[in-house]
Automatic annotation (TrEMBL):
The organism of origin for this protein: Jiangella anatolica
Record GO terms (molecular function): DNA-binding transcription factor activity; sequence-specific DNA binding
Record-linked Pfam families: AraC_binding (PF02311), HTH_18 (PF12833)
Highest taxon, organism lineage: Bacteria
Keywords on record: DNA-binding, Transcription, Transcription regulation
Keyword Membrane included in the entry's annotation: no
Full protein name: AraC family transcriptional regulator
Domain named HTH araC/xylS-type: residues: 204-302
InterPro entries in the cross-refs: AraC-bd, AraC_XylS_family_regulators, Homeodomain-like_sf, HTH_AraC, RmlC-like_jellyroll, RmlC_Cupin_sf, Tscrpt_reg_AraC-type_HTH
């Protein structure tokens, strides 16, 4: 996530979401220049906008994002999950990600960016900061961290702090997060951002295409064309890059979208299944239960 002053943003005005109908018209992860806040060697801000648009990107900074208003979908590596107010996400340097709001209206997030060496190399190897170093290492897969009400207030207040006071506040927050309950990894253990630019571009194109088209029928050949590979070669490539099959990933993406609709609307389950790309209700119910260990109706009941 970057603020609206940069060339490419995750949380950016989007208006009405656009759906591409051309296979070659896909999103590509951008390497973003984040910069710093005046008077600080890191960056923090409270971002408010009518909508958070899909912008699949990565950067060399660690990112700590607290959702303070609005709901939507969080993409982190090969993880696709709904987000809600109070959700705290720590993304390690280089983890591709995007936050996409479900609706227009009041959407807001605290966003913090810093490079691991922002106070000098080796700081987080020192004994008193070793727990923070371990936290940042674990964030290489992305982490969802527990956030108490006091922690959320501290993060919001941090957006107004400057100078040494602000930097000490950031270190204090990181230390408390590192010493608190462990975070939940987001991306699968088999997922890693490719070091080869050509492979990274391929995966960025594929993820963008799937995000744009998951509600429609998608053939393996269509996605293979996006990656400029044969279907058989694409299947092997995708499995090596993500640790799962293309079909499994697409199912997870569709179920994640369905979770958001189940939680935020009273639409019929069958209608949600069709909107999210499932050809029939029985298949949707089976796949949903496999991934969420409960039925769609049981999932919805948690939000009543």
């Amino acid at each position: 996530m970057t603020d609206s002053g940069t060339l490419a943003t995750t949380l950016a005005p989007s208006g009405t979401p656009r759906r591409s109908h051309r296979i070659v018209d896909v999103m590509r992860a951008a390497l973003e220049h984040v910069g710093t806040t005046g008077g600080l060697s890191w960056k923090r801000y409270l971002y408010r906008d009518n909508a958070f648009a899909f912008s699949w990107h990565f950067h060399p900074e660690v990112e700590l994002t607290l959702i303070t208003a609005g709901t939507g979908t969080r993409y982190a590596g090969d993880s696709i999950e709904p987000y809600d107010p109070g959700q705290l996400t720590l993304l390690g340097a280089g983890v591709p990600h995007a936050f996409v709001s479900a609706t227009t209206g009041h959407n807001e997030a605290v966003v913090i960016h810093f490079r691991p060496e922002f106070l000098g190399p080796g700081l987080f190897d020192a004994p008193e900061f070793a727990s923070i170093g371990a936290l940042l290492t674990a964030a290489g897969r992305g982490l969802e961290l527990p956030a108490s009400e006091p922690m959320m207030r501290r993060l919001v207040e941090l957006t107004e702090r400057t100078g040494a006071d602000g930097t000490l506040g950031l270190l204090g927050i990181l230390a408390d997060l590192a010493d608190g309950e462990p975070g939940r990894p987001l991306a699968s253990a088999g997922h890693h951002a490719s070091e080869r630019p050509a492979n990274r571009r391929r995966m960025d194109d594929v993820f963008g295409f799937l995000h744009d088209r998951y509600g429609e029928p998608i053939a393996l050949g269509d996605v293979a064309e996006v990656a400029h590979l044969s279907p058989a070669a694409f299947s092997r490539f995708f499995r090596r890059a993500t640790g799962r099959t293309f079909t499994a990933y697409l199912t997870e993406l569709r179920v994640g979208a369905a979770c958001r609709l189940l939680a935020e609307s009273d639409r019929a389950v069958a209608d949600i299944a069709a909107t999210c790309g499932f050809g029939n209700l029985s298949n949707f119910n089976r796949r949903f239960r496999e991934l969420k260990t409960m039925t769609p109706r049981e999932y919805r009941a948690r939000f009543d």
